[in-house]
Specification:
The chain has about 250 residues and is of the alpha/beta class. Strands 3-2-1-4-5-6-7 form a 7-stranded parallel beta sheet, sandwiched between helices. Helix 1 runs parallel beside helix 2 and helix 3 runs parallel beside helix 4. The radius of gyration is 17 Å and the shape is globular. The protein binds NADPH dihydro-nicotinamide-adenine-dinucleotide phosphate.
């Protein structure tokens, strides 16, 4: 028996990196996982990993910035899988630049995907969870949203906004038996961070209490805890998974 047997999860950004690890982990715990992303071929690889772990997954293709497409996709997931017990808002991107050089499109693209996208997916899903009188929502923010980072004013602003969003929703939805939490990863080894030079990597490791980059599985563990039986009385928190980058 898995901790999430009989439950349905929707994970955005499940085509690679942290989202893929979360999808595989929740499926291994017994949930049927709707794996969302824009790249169908990459989502198919996630489904193969889920099948390999003996789990059940389905692909759902949408761009989180497209409000109508998201609403239709959430409805379709609900119709096909009959419930949505768990939502993990993981899709996100960076467009790093110092503020004085930042193009307006770099600002808007990050806000559209990292902040508006979470609103688009959460609103229809929360309505379903409210009718079920049960649900778990986890928003993937970043320690950068808590501590700032030069060159990431757009990304830090969007991720900090997710913290306020998480705390407000926790207060709105608690009486319906829905918990809402955030997970704030530090530097995790994925496509998003593979551009680091060796020098940058060394400098970074020197700032960590635990001197290694995190893995997507480190983040998936934290999410699995929050959405599992042990997380039922935890809401409105930000769980920092950063090896002590931010303390
Ligand atoms: P990746 O770049 O490896 O993956 C990003 C995922 O988000 C992909 O699945 C991508 O899907 C999806 N995505 C991006 N934009 C959109 C969009 N407009 N619509 C739908 N899906 C989209 O990133 P990570 O796995 O590293 O990051 C995952 C989350 O963790 C992000 O929110 C990120 O900000 C956060 N994070 C990551 C850290 C790290 O060190 N890696 C640190 C702190 C936080 P597609 O295949 O369609 O492109």
């Amino acid at each position: 028996m898995g901790a999430l047997d009989g439950q349905v999860a929707l994970v955005t950004g499940a085509s690679r990196g942290i989202g893929r690890a979360i999808a595989v982990r929740l499926a291994a715990d017994g949930a049927a996982v709707a794996c969302a992303g824009r790249d169908e071929a990459a989502l198919a690889e996630t489904l193969d990993l889920i099948a390999g772990a003996g789990g059940r997954g389905e692909a759902v293709v949408f761009d989180v910035t497209d409000r109508e497409a998201v609403a239709a996709a959430v409805k379709e997931v609900h119709t096909r899988l009959e419930r949505i017990d768990i939502l993990v808002n993981n899709a996100g991107l960076t467009r790093d630049q110092l503020l004085v050089r930042m193009k307006e499109e770099d600002w808007r693209e990050v806000m559209a995907a990292d902040l508006d996208g979470v609103f688009h997916v959460t609103q229809p899903t929360a309505k379903i969870m409210m009718r079920q009188r049960a649900g778990r929502i986890v928003n993937i923010t970043s320690v950068v949203g808590l501590m700032g980072n030069p060159g990431q004013a757009n990304y830090a602003a969007a991720k900090a906004a997710l913290v306020g969003f998480t705390k407000s929703l926790a207060r709105e939805l608690g009486s319906r038996n829905i918990t809402v939490n955030a997970v704030a990863p530090g530097y995790i080894q994925t496509a998003m961070t593979e551009g680091l030079t060796d020098e940058q990597r060394e400098a970074l490791l020197a700032t960590l209490a635990i001197p290694r980059l995190g893995t997507p599985e480190d983040v998936a563990e934290a999410v699995a805890f929050l959405v599992g039986p042990g997380g039922s009385y935890i809401t409105g928190t930000v769980l920092n998974v950063s090896g002590g980058l931010y303390i």
